[in-house]
Amino acid sequence: MKIAVVGTGYVGLVTGTCFAESGVTVTCIDKDKEKVARLSEGMVPIYEPGLEDMMRRNMEKKRLSFSSDLKKGISGAEVIFIAVGTPPGEDGSADLSHVIEVAGEIGSALKSHAVIVTKSTVPVGTSEKVRKAIAASLARRKSRVTFDVASNPEFLKEGAAVEDFLRPERIVIGVSNEKTAEVMRNLYMPFVLNNHPIIFMDIPSAEITKYAANAMLATRISFINEIANLCDLLGADINHVRKGIGSDSRIGSKFLYPGTGYGGSCFPKDVKAIIKTAHDNGYELKVISAVEKANEYQKNVIFNKMAKLFKNQFSGRCVGIWGLSFKPKTDDIRESSSLYLINKLIMEGVRVRAYDPAAMEETRKVMGRKVFYAADPYEALRGADAMVLMTEWSEFHLPDLKKMASLMKGRVIFDGRNIYNPEEIRKQGFKYFGIGRR
Protein backbone atom coordinates (compact mmCIF):
# COMPACT_ATOMS: atom_id res chain seq x y z
CA MET A 1 0.00 0.00 0.00
CA LYS A 2 1.22 3.49 -0.83
CA ILE A 3 0.23 6.65 1.00
CA ALA A 4 1.28 10.30 1.07
CA VAL A 5 1.44 12.74 3.96
CA VAL A 6 1.37 16.44 3.13
CA GLY A 7 3.11 18.43 5.86
CA THR A 8 6.22 17.37 7.79
CA GLY A 9 5.54 19.10 11.07
CA TYR A 10 5.13 17.26 14.33
CA VAL A 11 1.99 15.33 13.33
CA GLY A 12 2.91 14.71 9.71
CA LEU A 13 6.41 13.43 10.39
CA VAL A 14 5.32 11.08 13.18
CA THR A 15 2.37 9.85 11.09
CA GLY A 16 4.44 9.15 7.99
CA THR A 17 7.28 7.48 9.87
CA CYS A 18 5.02 5.23 11.93
CA PHE A 19 3.02 4.10 8.90
CA ALA A 20 6.31 3.27 7.16
CA GLU A 21 7.25 1.18 10.21
CA SER A 22 4.14 -0.95 9.56
CA GLY A 23 5.33 -1.76 6.02
CA VAL A 24 3.45 0.93 4.09
CA THR A 25 5.31 2.90 1.41
CA VAL A 26 5.13 6.55 2.47
CA THR A 27 6.04 9.83 0.81
CA CYS A 28 6.10 12.86 3.11
CA ILE A 29 5.63 16.12 1.22
CA ASP A 30 6.57 19.65 2.22
CA LYS A 31 6.96 22.80 0.12
CA ASP A 32 10.00 23.85 2.17
CA LYS A 33 12.80 22.50 -0.04
CA GLU A 34 15.53 23.07 2.56
CA LYS A 35 13.56 21.13 5.16
CA VAL A 36 12.96 18.30 2.69
CA ALA A 37 16.70 18.19 1.94
CA ARG A 38 17.55 17.91 5.65
CA LEU A 39 14.91 15.23 6.20
CA SER A 40 16.23 13.28 3.21
CA GLU A 41 19.61 13.22 4.96
CA GLY A 42 18.00 11.77 8.09
CA MET A 43 18.00 15.00 10.09
CA VAL A 44 14.95 15.27 12.37
CA PRO A 45 13.85 18.90 13.01
CA ILE A 46 12.01 18.13 16.27
CA TYR A 47 12.93 16.48 19.55
CA GLU A 48 10.83 13.36 19.93
CA PRO A 49 12.16 10.17 21.58
CA GLY A 50 12.50 7.26 19.16
CA LEU A 51 11.55 9.19 16.02
CA GLU A 52 15.00 9.72 14.49
CA ASP A 53 16.06 6.07 14.64
CA MET A 54 12.74 4.90 13.21
CA MET A 55 12.84 7.48 10.43
CA ARG A 56 16.36 6.52 9.34
CA ARG A 57 15.58 2.80 9.53
CA ASN A 58 12.60 3.15 7.19
CA MET A 59 14.49 5.42 4.81
CA GLU A 60 17.18 2.75 4.52
CA LYS A 61 14.49 0.16 3.71
CA LYS A 62 13.08 2.49 1.02
CA ARG A 63 9.68 2.67 2.71
CA LEU A 64 9.94 6.35 3.65
CA SER A 65 10.92 9.22 1.38
CA PHE A 66 10.55 12.99 1.28
CA SER A 67 9.61 15.32 -1.55
CA SER A 68 8.78 18.95 -2.24
CA ASP A 69 6.88 17.97 -5.40
CA LEU A 70 3.26 17.35 -4.43
CA LYS A 71 2.23 16.10 -7.88
CA LYS A 72 4.97 13.48 -7.86
CA GLY A 73 4.57 12.69 -4.17
CA ILE A 74 0.87 11.79 -4.30
CA SER A 75 1.12 9.82 -7.54
CA GLY A 76 -0.33 6.35 -6.98
CA ALA A 77 -1.19 7.01 -3.33
CA GLU A 78 -4.36 5.29 -2.13
CA VAL A 79 -4.59 7.54 0.93
CA ILE A 80 -3.39 11.14 1.19
CA PHE A 81 -3.17 12.73 4.62
CA ILE A 82 -3.33 16.50 5.05
CA ALA A 83 -1.23 17.34 8.11
CA VAL A 84 -0.36 21.01 7.71
CA GLY A 85 -0.58 23.65 10.43
CA THR A 86 -3.78 25.33 11.58
CA PRO A 87 -2.46 28.24 13.67
CA PRO A 88 -4.93 30.28 15.74
CA GLY A 89 -6.14 33.60 14.39
CA GLU A 90 -6.47 36.71 16.53
CA ASP A 91 -10.08 35.80 17.27
CA GLY A 92 -9.15 32.27 18.34
CA SER A 93 -10.42 30.56 15.20
CA ALA A 94 -8.28 27.98 13.41
CA ASP A 95 -6.56 29.31 10.28
CA LEU A 96 -7.54 26.83 7.56
CA SER A 97 -5.77 28.57 4.68
CA HIS A 98 -2.96 25.99 4.49
CA VAL A 99 -5.42 23.08 4.62
CA ILE A 100 -7.60 24.47 1.83
CA GLU A 101 -4.55 25.42 -0.25
CA VAL A 102 -3.23 21.86 -0.06
CA ALA A 103 -6.67 20.47 -0.91
CA GLY A 104 -6.75 22.58 -4.05
CA GLU A 105 -3.26 21.42 -5.03
CA ILE A 106 -4.28 17.80 -4.52
CA GLY A 107 -7.26 18.33 -6.83
CA SER A 108 -4.94 19.80 -9.46
CA ALA A 109 -2.60 16.79 -9.31
CA LEU A 110 -4.85 13.78 -8.57
CA LYS A 111 -4.72 11.12 -11.29
CA SER A 112 -6.45 8.16 -9.65
CA HIS A 113 -8.98 7.52 -6.90
CA ALA A 114 -7.73 8.29 -3.39
CA VAL A 115 -9.06 8.88 0.11
CA ILE A 116 -8.13 12.38 1.27
CA VAL A 117 -7.82 12.42 5.05
CA THR A 118 -7.71 15.52 7.20
CA LYS A 119 -5.19 14.79 9.98
CA SER A 120 -4.76 18.39 11.08
CA THR A 121 -6.87 19.55 14.01
CA VAL A 122 -9.72 21.41 12.34
CA PRO A 123 -13.21 22.67 13.26
CA VAL A 124 -16.43 21.01 12.17
CA GLY A 125 -17.12 21.55 8.48
CA THR A 126 -13.49 21.55 7.34
CA SER A 127 -13.66 18.18 5.58
CA GLU A 128 -16.57 19.50 3.52
CA LYS A 129 -14.46 22.55 2.59
CA VAL A 130 -11.64 20.19 1.63
CA ARG A 131 -14.03 18.18 -0.55
CA LYS A 132 -15.25 21.33 -2.31
CA ALA A 133 -11.71 22.62 -2.89
CA ILE A 134 -10.62 19.31 -4.45
CA ALA A 135 -13.79 19.07 -6.54
CA ALA A 136 -13.32 22.63 -7.82
CA SER A 137 -9.75 21.89 -8.93
CA LEU A 138 -10.83 18.69 -10.65
CA ALA A 139 -13.65 20.58 -12.40
CA ARG A 140 -11.20 23.17 -13.73
CA ARG A 141 -9.16 20.33 -15.17
CA LYS A 142 -12.35 18.73 -16.51
CA SER A 143 -11.18 15.58 -14.76
CA ARG A 144 -13.44 12.67 -13.84
CA VAL A 145 -11.12 11.28 -11.18
CA THR A 146 -13.09 10.27 -8.08
CA PHE A 147 -12.12 10.68 -4.44
CA ASP A 148 -13.46 10.34 -0.92
CA VAL A 149 -12.75 12.41 2.18
CA ALA A 150 -12.30 11.36 5.78
CA SER A 151 -11.41 12.91 9.13
CA ASN A 152 -8.78 11.22 11.31
CA PRO A 153 -7.82 13.46 14.25
CA GLU A 154 -4.53 12.73 16.03
CA PHE A 155 -4.19 12.07 19.75
CA LEU A 156 -0.42 12.21 20.14
CA LYS A 157 1.30 13.38 23.31
CA GLU A 158 4.54 15.23 22.69
CA GLY A 159 7.36 13.24 24.21
CA ALA A 160 5.44 9.99 23.70
CA ALA A 161 4.10 10.45 20.17
CA VAL A 162 5.76 7.41 18.59
CA GLU A 163 4.47 5.12 21.32
CA ASP A 164 1.01 6.70 21.11
CA PHE A 165 0.86 6.10 17.36
CA LEU A 166 2.17 2.54 17.45
CA ARG A 167 0.00 1.51 20.42
CA PRO A 168 -3.01 3.84 20.40
CA GLU A 169 -5.74 3.77 23.02
CA ARG A 170 -8.22 4.41 20.21
CA ILE A 171 -8.30 5.56 16.61
CA VAL A 172 -11.10 7.92 15.59
CA ILE A 173 -12.10 8.05 11.93
CA GLY A 174 -14.93 10.02 10.35
CA VAL A 175 -16.23 8.65 7.04
CA SER A 176 -19.26 9.00 4.80
CA ASN A 177 -19.34 5.51 3.26
CA GLU A 178 -18.30 1.92 3.99
CA LYS A 179 -15.78 1.80 1.14
CA THR A 180 -13.71 4.55 2.77
CA ALA A 181 -14.07 2.88 6.16
CA GLU A 182 -12.65 -0.36 4.74
CA VAL A 183 -9.60 1.42 3.27
CA MET A 184 -8.87 3.12 6.59
CA ARG A 185 -9.51 -0.08 8.55
CA ASN A 186 -6.91 -1.94 6.47
CA LEU A 187 -4.38 0.87 6.84
CA TYR A 188 -4.67 0.96 10.62
CA MET A 189 -5.00 -2.78 11.22
CA PRO A 190 -1.36 -3.25 12.37
CA PHE A 191 -1.91 -0.69 15.14
CA VAL A 192 -4.96 -2.27 16.78
CA LEU A 193 -3.56 -5.70 17.58
CA ASN A 194 -3.68 -4.53 21.23
CA ASN A 195 -7.48 -4.81 20.95
CA HIS A 196 -8.00 -1.09 21.33
CA PRO A 197 -10.71 0.08 18.96
CA ILE A 198 -10.99 1.88 15.68
CA ILE A 199 -14.04 4.06 16.24
CA PHE A 200 -15.86 4.94 13.02
CA MET A 201 -18.36 7.80 13.03
CA ASP A 202 -19.69 10.56 10.83
CA ILE A 203 -17.20 13.23 9.77
CA PRO A 204 -18.54 16.17 11.85
CA SER A 205 -18.43 14.03 15.01
CA ALA A 206 -14.83 13.03 14.33
CA GLU A 207 -13.85 16.66 13.80
CA ILE A 208 -15.27 17.78 17.12
CA THR A 209 -13.97 14.76 19.06
CA LYS A 210 -10.39 16.09 19.04
CA TYR A 211 -11.45 19.49 20.38
CA ALA A 212 -13.73 17.94 22.98
CA ALA A 213 -10.94 15.64 24.23
CA ASN A 214 -8.41 18.45 24.62
CA ALA A 215 -10.98 20.75 26.21
CA MET A 216 -11.79 18.03 28.76
CA LEU A 217 -8.13 17.49 29.65
CA ALA A 218 -7.56 21.24 29.90
CA THR A 219 -10.58 21.43 32.19
CA ARG A 220 -9.07 18.86 34.56
CA ILE A 221 -5.79 20.79 34.67
CA SER A 222 -7.47 24.12 35.39
CA PHE A 223 -9.74 22.48 37.97
CA ILE A 224 -6.89 21.03 40.02
CA ASN A 225 -4.96 24.29 39.71
CA GLU A 226 -7.92 26.17 41.16
CA ILE A 227 -8.16 23.71 44.07
CA ALA A 228 -4.39 24.03 44.64
CA ASN A 229 -4.71 27.81 44.84
CA LEU A 230 -7.47 27.37 47.41
CA CYS A 231 -5.21 24.99 49.37
CA ASP A 232 -2.58 27.75 49.47
CA LEU A 233 -5.08 30.06 51.14
CA LEU A 234 -6.45 27.47 53.57
CA GLY A 235 -3.23 25.76 54.58
CA ALA A 236 -4.18 22.42 53.04
CA ASP A 237 -1.94 20.18 50.90
CA ILE A 238 -3.01 19.62 47.30
CA ASN A 239 -1.12 16.31 47.12
CA HIS A 240 -3.41 14.85 49.79
CA VAL A 241 -6.50 16.32 48.12
CA ARG A 242 -5.44 15.01 44.71
CA LYS A 243 -5.04 11.48 46.06
CA GLY A 244 -8.32 11.73 47.90
CA ILE A 245 -10.36 12.63 44.84
CA GLY A 246 -8.29 10.64 42.34
CA SER A 247 -9.07 7.38 44.14
CA ASP A 248 -12.71 7.81 43.10
CA SER A 249 -13.10 5.63 40.01
CA ARG A 250 -15.46 8.20 38.51
CA ILE A 251 -12.70 10.82 38.65
CA GLY A 252 -9.35 9.01 38.38
CA SER A 253 -5.90 10.47 38.93
CA LYS A 254 -4.78 11.39 35.42
CA PHE A 255 -4.37 15.08 34.58
CA LEU A 256 -4.87 16.05 38.22
CA TYR A 257 -1.39 17.46 38.76
CA PRO A 258 -1.27 21.14 39.72
CA GLY A 259 1.28 23.42 38.14
CA THR A 260 1.81 26.68 36.33
CA GLY A 261 -0.86 26.26 33.65
CA TYR A 262 -1.14 24.18 30.49
CA GLY A 263 0.76 25.14 27.34
CA GLY A 264 2.03 23.56 24.13
CA SER A 265 0.74 23.48 20.59
CA CYS A 266 -2.63 21.87 21.28
CA PHE A 267 -4.50 22.77 24.47
CA PRO A 268 -4.36 26.59 24.25
CA LYS A 269 -5.13 26.61 20.52
CA ASP A 270 -7.86 23.99 20.66
CA VAL A 271 -9.62 25.52 23.68
CA LYS A 272 -9.76 28.86 21.87
CA ALA A 273 -10.96 27.21 18.68
CA ILE A 274 -13.85 25.30 20.26
CA ILE A 275 -14.95 28.44 22.11
CA LYS A 276 -14.90 30.35 18.80
CA THR A 277 -16.79 27.56 17.01
CA ALA A 278 -19.54 27.68 19.61
CA HIS A 279 -19.66 31.48 19.48
CA ASP A 280 -20.01 31.42 15.69
CA ASN A 281 -23.00 29.13 16.12
CA GLY A 282 -24.69 31.33 18.72
CA TYR A 283 -23.68 29.38 21.81
CA GLU A 284 -21.42 30.22 24.75
CA LEU A 285 -19.28 27.44 26.23
CA LYS A 286 -19.35 28.74 29.80
CA VAL A 287 -17.28 26.00 31.44
CA ILE A 288 -14.58 25.90 28.76
CA SER A 289 -14.39 29.71 28.67
CA ALA A 290 -13.77 29.62 32.43
CA VAL A 291 -11.05 27.01 31.89
CA GLU A 292 -9.20 29.36 29.56
CA LYS A 293 -9.56 32.25 32.01
CA ALA A 294 -8.31 30.10 34.89
CA ASN A 295 -5.27 29.04 32.87
CA GLU A 296 -4.30 32.61 32.11
CA TYR A 297 -4.40 33.32 35.84
CA GLN A 298 -2.34 30.21 36.63
CA LYS A 299 0.52 31.29 34.41
CA ASN A 300 1.10 34.12 36.88
CA VAL A 301 1.05 31.98 40.03
CA ILE A 302 4.85 31.71 40.48
CA PHE A 303 5.38 35.38 39.65
CA ASN A 304 2.79 36.33 42.26
CA LYS A 305 4.51 34.18 44.89
CA MET A 306 7.84 35.79 44.04
CA ALA A 307 6.33 39.28 44.19
CA LYS A 308 5.00 38.55 47.67
CA LEU A 309 8.32 37.17 48.92
CA PHE A 310 10.42 39.96 47.41
CA LYS A 311 7.83 42.63 48.27
CA ASN A 312 7.72 43.62 44.60
CA GLN A 313 11.41 44.52 44.68
CA PHE A 314 12.56 42.73 41.52
CA SER A 315 15.07 45.11 39.96
CA GLY A 316 18.65 43.88 40.11
CA ARG A 317 17.73 40.36 41.20
CA CYS A 318 18.85 37.17 39.49
CA VAL A 319 16.65 34.10 39.02
CA GLY A 320 17.69 30.64 37.83
CA ILE A 321 15.11 28.79 35.74
CA TRP A 322 15.08 25.01 35.37
CA GLY A 323 12.99 24.02 32.36
CA LEU A 324 11.92 25.95 29.27
CA SER A 325 9.76 23.54 27.26
CA PHE A 326 6.07 23.35 28.12
CA LYS A 327 6.53 19.74 29.27
CA PRO A 328 9.36 17.18 29.52
CA LYS A 329 10.65 15.10 26.58
CA THR A 330 10.05 17.81 24.00
CA ASP A 331 11.75 20.96 22.76
CA ASP A 332 8.37 22.64 22.14
CA ILE A 333 8.17 26.06 23.79
CA ARG A 334 4.87 27.16 22.29
CA GLU A 335 2.66 28.70 24.99
CA SER A 336 5.29 27.67 27.54
CA SER A 337 4.54 28.89 31.07
CA SER A 338 8.28 29.12 31.61
CA LEU A 339 8.77 31.64 28.82
CA TYR A 340 5.73 33.55 30.04
CA LEU A 341 7.35 33.87 33.48
CA ILE A 342 10.74 34.75 32.02
CA ASN A 343 9.27 37.62 29.99
CA LYS A 344 7.54 39.00 33.09
CA LEU A 345 10.74 38.81 35.12
CA ILE A 346 12.79 40.53 32.43
CA MET A 347 10.23 43.35 32.28
CA GLU A 348 10.77 43.82 36.02
CA GLY A 349 14.51 44.14 35.61
CA VAL A 350 15.44 40.59 36.66
CA ARG A 351 18.47 38.83 35.18
CA VAL A 352 17.45 35.34 34.08
CA ARG A 353 19.77 32.35 33.88
CA ALA A 354 18.13 29.26 32.36
CA TYR A 355 18.75 25.63 31.54
CA ASP A 356 16.75 22.98 29.68
CA PRO A 357 17.94 19.59 28.35
CA ALA A 358 16.30 20.04 24.94
CA ALA A 359 14.69 23.47 24.43
CA MET A 360 17.66 25.86 24.64
CA GLU A 361 18.01 26.39 20.89
CA GLU A 362 14.30 26.94 20.38
CA THR A 363 14.28 29.44 23.26
CA ARG A 364 17.29 31.26 21.84
CA LYS A 365 15.39 31.78 18.58
CA VAL A 366 12.64 33.57 20.50
CA MET A 367 14.44 35.23 23.42
CA GLY A 368 17.82 35.93 21.87
CA ARG A 369 20.33 37.36 24.34
CA LYS A 370 17.74 38.40 26.90
CA VAL A 371 18.49 35.17 28.77
CA PHE A 372 21.76 33.58 29.90
CA TYR A 373 21.79 29.99 28.64
CA ALA A 374 23.61 27.77 31.11
CA ALA A 375 25.61 24.66 30.20
CA ASP A 376 24.04 22.68 33.04
CA PRO A 377 21.39 23.14 35.77
CA TYR A 378 23.84 24.32 38.42
CA GLU A 379 25.45 26.96 36.23
CA ALA A 380 21.98 28.48 35.90
CA LEU A 381 21.96 29.04 39.68
CA ARG A 382 25.25 30.91 40.04
CA GLY A 383 24.49 34.11 41.97
CA ALA A 384 20.72 33.52 41.83
CA ASP A 385 18.36 34.94 44.43
CA ALA A 386 15.97 32.07 43.70
CA MET A 387 15.56 28.91 41.64
CA VAL A 388 12.32 28.19 39.80
CA LEU A 389 11.48 24.65 38.62
CA MET A 390 9.18 25.05 35.62
CA THR A 391 9.49 21.76 33.70
CA GLU A 392 9.76 18.40 35.47
CA TRP A 393 12.59 16.86 33.45
CA SER A 394 13.86 13.70 35.18
CA GLU A 395 17.33 15.14 35.72
CA PHE A 396 15.85 17.83 37.96
CA HIS A 397 14.20 15.42 40.41
CA LEU A 398 17.19 14.72 42.70
CA PRO A 399 19.20 17.94 42.88
CA ASP A 400 22.40 18.39 44.92
CA LEU A 401 21.02 20.84 47.48
CA LYS A 402 24.41 21.49 49.07
CA LYS A 403 25.87 22.41 45.70
CA MET A 404 22.88 24.63 45.01
CA ALA A 405 23.34 26.42 48.34
CA SER A 406 27.01 27.08 47.57
CA LEU A 407 26.17 28.65 44.21
CA MET A 408 23.06 30.66 45.02
CA LYS A 409 22.94 34.09 46.57
CA GLY A 410 19.57 33.37 48.16
CA ARG A 411 18.23 30.03 49.33
CA VAL A 412 14.77 30.04 47.78
CA ILE A 413 13.13 27.36 45.63
CA PHE A 414 9.87 27.82 43.75
CA ASP A 415 8.63 24.39 42.72
CA GLY A 416 6.21 24.92 39.83
CA ARG A 417 5.54 21.20 39.43
CA ASN A 418 5.48 19.97 43.05
CA ILE A 419 8.23 17.40 42.47
CA TYR A 420 10.22 18.10 45.65
CA ASN A 421 9.71 17.15 49.28
CA PRO A 422 9.22 20.46 51.12
CA GLU A 423 10.64 19.13 54.40
CA GLU A 424 13.84 17.91 52.78
CA ILE A 425 14.28 21.24 51.01
CA ARG A 426 13.75 23.19 54.23
CA LYS A 427 16.16 21.00 56.20
CA GLN A 428 18.92 22.25 53.91
CA GLY A 429 18.11 25.84 54.81
CA PHE A 430 16.00 26.71 51.77
CA LYS A 431 12.67 28.45 51.67
CA TYR A 432 10.24 26.30 49.67
CA PHE A 433 7.19 27.43 47.69
CA GLY A 434 5.09 24.91 45.78
CA ILE A 435 1.62 24.99 44.27
CA GLY A 436 -1.02 24.38 46.94
CA ARG A 437 1.36 22.81 49.45
CA ARG A 438 1.76 23.65 53.11
Beta fraction of the residues? Answer: 5-15%
Global mean pLDDT = 96
**Strand line-up across the major sheet:** 3-2-1-4-5-6
> Distance N terminus to C terminus?
58 Å
Q: Would you identify the CATH H-level superfamily of the largest domain?
A: NAD(P)-binding Rossmann-like Domain
CATH top level label of the largest domain:
Alpha Beta
What topology emerges from the helices and strands here?
Blueprint: E1 2-6, H1 10-21, E2 25-29, H2 33-40, H3 51-60, E3 64-67, H4 70-73, E4 79-82, H5 97-109, E5 114-118, H6 126-141, E6 147-151, H7 161-166, E7 171-174, H8 178-188, E8 198-201, H9 203-234, H10 238-246, H11 267-280, H12 286-298, H13 301-309, E9 318-322, H14 337-347, E10 351-355, H15 360-367, E11 372-373, E12 386-389, H16 401-407, E13 412-415, H17 422-427, E14 431-433
Parallel strand pairs: 1-2, 1-4, 2-3, 4-5, 5-6, 7-8, 9-10, 9-12, 10-11, 12-13, 13-14
Helix pairs in contact: 1-3, 5-6, 9-11, 9-12, 11-12
In short:
This protein has 438 residues and is of the alpha/beta class. It has helices at 10-21, 33-40, 51-60, 70-73, 97-109, 126-141, 161-166, 178-188, 203-234, 238-246, 267-280, 286-298, 301-309, 337-347, 360-367, 401-407, 422-427; strands at residues 2-6, 25-29, 64-67, 79-82, 114-118, 147-151, 171-174, 198-201, 318-322, 351-355, 372-373, 386-389, 412-415, 431-433.
Question: Overview of this structure, please?
Answer:
- This protein is α/β, with parallel strands linked by helices and 438 residues long.
- It folds into three domains: 2-200, 3-Layer(aba) Sandwich (Rossmann fold), CATH 3.40.50; 211-298, Orthogonal Bundle (N-(1-d-carboxylethyl)-l-norvaline Dehydrogenase, domain 2); 301-433, 3-Layer(aba) Sandwich (Rossmann fold), CATH 3.40.50.720.
- Helix content is 43%, strand content 13%.
- The strands form three sheets. Strands 3-2-1-4-5-6 form a six-stranded parallel β-sheet, with helices on both faces. A six-stranded parallel β-sheet has the order 11-10-9-12-13-14. It has a two-stranded parallel ribbon with strand order 7-8.
- Strand 7, helix 8 and strand 8 form a beta-alpha-beta unit.
- Helix 1 crosses helix 3 (51-60), helix 9 packs across helix 12 (286-298) and helix 11 packs antiparallel against helix 12.
- It starts with a strand and ends in a 5-residue tail after the last strand.
- The mean pLDDT is 96.
